[in-house]
Amino acid sequence: xxALTLQNLNLSVRDETWLDDISLHLxxxxxxxLLGRTGAGKTSLIRAIAxxxxxxxxxxxxxxVRWDGxxxxxxxxxxxxxxxxxxxHLSVLDNVAFPLRRAxxxxxxxxxxxxxxIQRVGLAAMADRRPGALSGGQQQxxxxxxxxxxxxxxxxxxxxxxxxxxxxxxxxxxxxxxxLEGRQSTIVIYASTEPSEALQMSARLLVMEEGRVVQExxxxxxxxxxxxxxxxxxxxxxxxxxxxxxxDTDAAEVESLGWFSLETLLGVERLGLVGDQGLPPGQxxxxxxxxxLALAPEGRPAVVTLxxxxxxxxxxxxxxxxxxxxxxxxxxxxxxxxxxxHIRPRLSTVxxxxxxxxxxxxxxxxxxxxxxx
Amino acid sequence: xxxxxxxSLAHSYxxxxxxxxxALKPLDMxxxxxxxxxxxxxxxxxxSTMLNIISGLIQPSHGRVLFDGxxxxxxxxxxxxxxxxxxxxxxxxxxxxxxxxxFPLVCRRRQRAEIDRRVGDVAELLGLQRVLNRPAVALTAxxxxxxxxxxxxxxxxxxxxxxxxxxxxxxxxxxxxxxRKLKEVNQAFNITMVLVTHDQNEALTFARxxxxxxxxxIVQQGDPQTLFDNPRTEHVGYFIGSPxxxxxPAAQSADALGVLDGQLQVPMTSAMRGSDDLKIAFRxxxxxxxxxxxxxxxxxxxxxxxxxxxxxxxxxxGTRFRARLDDWRGTVGDAIELRxxxxxxxxxxxxxxxxxx
Amino acid sequence: MKxxxxxxxxxxxxxxxxxVLFPFLWAVxxxxxxxxxxxxxxxxxxxxxxxxxLQGWQSLFGGSxxxxxxxxxxxxxxxxxxxSLISIVLGTLAAYGLSRFTFKAGFIRxxxxxxxxxxQRIMPPIVLAIPFFLLLRQLGxxxxxxxxxxxxxxxLLPIAVWVMVDFFNNVPRQLDxxxxxxxxxxxxxxxxxxLPNSVPGLIVAGMFCLIFGWNDFFFAFTLxxxxxxxxxxxxxxxxxSVTPWWSLSASALISVAPLxxxxxxxxxxxxxxxxxxxxx
Lengths: 373, 357, 280
Description:
The complex is a heterotrimer.
Chain A: E1 4-13, E2 16-26, E3 31-35, H1 42-50, E4 57-62, E5 65-66, E6 77-80, H2 92-102, H3 107-120, H4 136-150, E7 154-158, H5 166-180, E8 187-192, H6 195-201, E9 204-209, E10 212-217, H7 219-224, H8 229-235, E11 241-247, E12 252-254, E13 260-261, H9 262-266, E14 282-288, E15 293-309, E16 314-320, E17 323-329, E18 340-345, E19 350-354, E20 359-363
Parallel strand pairs in A: 3-8, 3-9, 6-7, 7-8
Antiparallel strand pairs in A: 1-2, 1-4, 4-5, 9-10, 11-12, 11-14, 12-13, 14-19, 15-16, 15-18, 16-17, 19-20
Helix pairs in contact in A: 2-3, 2-4, 3-4
Chain B: E1 4-12, E2 22-31, E3 36-40, H1 47-55, E4 62-67, E5 70-71, H2 77-80, E6 82-85, H3 97-107, H4 112-126, H5 141-153, E7 160-164, H6 172-189, E8 192-197, H7 200-206, E9 209-214, E10 217-222, H8 224-229, H9 234-239, E11 246-249, E12 251-252, E13 256-259, E14 264-267, E15 278-282, E16 287-288, E17 294-305, E18 310-316, E19 319-325, E20 335-340, E21 346-349, E22 352-353
Parallel strand pairs in B: 3-8, 3-9, 6-7, 7-8
Antiparallel strand pairs in B: 1-2, 1-4, 4-5, 9-10, 11-15, 12-13, 13-14, 15-21, 16-20, 17-18, 17-20, 18-19, 21-22
Helix pairs in contact in B: 3-4, 3-5, 4-5
Chain C: H1 2-31, H2 35-39, H3 55-60, H4 70-100, H5 110-122, H6 125-139, H7 145-169, H8 173-181, H9 186-194, H10 199-215, H11 218-222, H12 231-238, H13 245-270
Helix pairs in contact in C: 1-13, 4-7, 4-10, 4-12, 5-7, 7-10, 8-9, 10-13, 12-13
């Protein structure tokens, strides 16, 4: 039961910062998801832990052992790539047995153990085939099986499902969670760009942005109180509305909506943004979830620019005084493009970020429509 | 711009065989000018074959392809004026964004002024003005994909735009933007768009008409809501919606069909008789905590937190099903009382929806 | 339309293959002719047009009017074979290093080293002949198999490095990394993972080495005298004031035989596929 401690990891390549002073303490038995956009540093961090990138500074320690200068082949880590990487010249069974053989396990027990893992990932019928003869999903199962047989205390998964069909991905996500259940001594680090995947699978979320970990916490906590504009963007799909806002001593006005006062927009004064307990006057960003906007006859007018209807939900893009807003409704509503609808924010969560994008406030005026939060 | 008709179209990669195996089974279809379509299905369902037949990369073994009544079956891709955007952005690496966008027109020897105007228009629509003079290789993946799209749009003679999983390499946050741009393009140019995808969410949000394919066959065509509420087969019910529709094998009695120990019941009709394979189905989205409907008592087995709501795996008398709830808080093992509206229950006989229940 | 296209296609193929096969046909018929058969214009059909004779073939194995090429033949096999083998082994190792690791020595980088290898083949052979001659004389290796093997390694190594660097650059790096994470050191990674998946590249490099080595006349001629003769030199030595077309033809056929055999075997092997399935 050893924890993994990362201290001040820094990595830059050709004047570009890939990892910016990352310090983390990761405990075994939990699935950590690195959530961030492409280029946020997820892959770099995973590769740094595996020893595949040479850090400029910082140290990695696992169970009292410093990994600095430890070659990848001496680190107790297993990894699954985004691409389907297998040994083309070996059968599925030999692929999975490969790490065991390298660790000095004799051929027969290694194959026996590999066989059991292959059964668990549902590839028993394919054991004698070469990876090239398998479908994409099966190839990735082989790679996962190989990582599992190594039974390393640190398991790195770099967007392993991103290249799979949607429905297969859904299935594999559940399978993966099941396979990893009960591995109390393993630290699993899973990189993802998909909010729903990250929220569903992980015990703890690590939100990455521009080479930094900007927030760490249980999924619900990150979702309910994102630490930055970037974090709010990356955990929300459909996207969160971000508006610029100016706070005076006695009023909050939303610039991007043509200087509407926030009170007019939200219809409430209880946000607690101004006044004695409020924020200092200045420039801020306002974050409003697409689902926290609602149709309301008494609301403000907006012009529909696009409607996206999925089976049970509707996402409508709106133009309000030149500002792009997204409205998410839990019903099928076909607002015609070009028509005018009236919306207002629900009396629910409003995030306030400072000009550097850091969250300074979560306002939850009044009672929410539902019992969440 | 054109209507596209597929007339008794079928394709077999080995048509000479005595019983040819069809990659695409016989079908008739019309795609209207200016509409958005999605071909949805798993890998190997025939959707790419269909796309390649329309673009002219594959000659169909049977049937004809008509553009506005004009038979183009024997013509090559170039003669059909089809524009295609692929999964991986295709850009000319040695050129700037402007040169990339202008290339199709330069090849067609258009006037300088016309080229500048078209490129300007397309760049504005796609939001590429600021990067026009940059080398195309220096762009991000999503911008590159926009350039591929832009090259398809600068031509004014495009009959249809075929999109072959163009959003696969794009981040979820940017997917949203790109999808929006595609729809704007559709409205601005009134151009027929066909999206090929395995991602049901993408298909539902992009297209007005979705064609669900499986094993080389069109299983169902319809708008998102129809596919969601009335999937014609179990496959559609599974493929559309995340998580999939709940299909529960039903027990038959003299006058009713029941699941979950009779907690959900529908009256027996003549259409249901004479089959052992009867299922009652409902969407996880149509399970509620309160309100009207059949009452179902269940125990929570697993919780998937999805942000705005959560998906629960539930157990009732040994039968598992799923529900999507947005206003529940609890833990695994909790007992829970649910409601399912009668109007949301569907009956499937031998894997197919019984329309009138 | 389709049939016309097909007809043109096959006609073109036919024309080209006859163009390629003609010299062989000529060599085969000529090798069974005698002086009389050769002088009377082109003839093709044995017995009818000319009287076939084994004289040409016999002269290659100590028969009258020729030399025994058995010795040179085996010399050629030994020199080409061992030089190719050593070049491939050394070249593959060097190429893997150049493809995967970064070298720095002053201003010299990987690309410079690769260029250095290739530059060996840019110089015209004549420039190398004298240095090689002096070097071998100094080492006492003139007119020996060992000396020739050394020189051939110097000639073939650049080819092997060139082909293999290019091949390794196309093998996904993640395959190496995966092997490291599975517990392989760089050396075990090389021979357990990379090498088994490099057979197509090895074959191409091997073919190049064998062809270049087997067909070299220039160095075989300048660096040997009488003790160690290689096949190309021996064949040239068959020539006399009256050109013995029959024995020259026979020797030409005998000398290309191993390469043709090799080409057939390799073609079979290559068509079975190489790296399929490493990375989607």
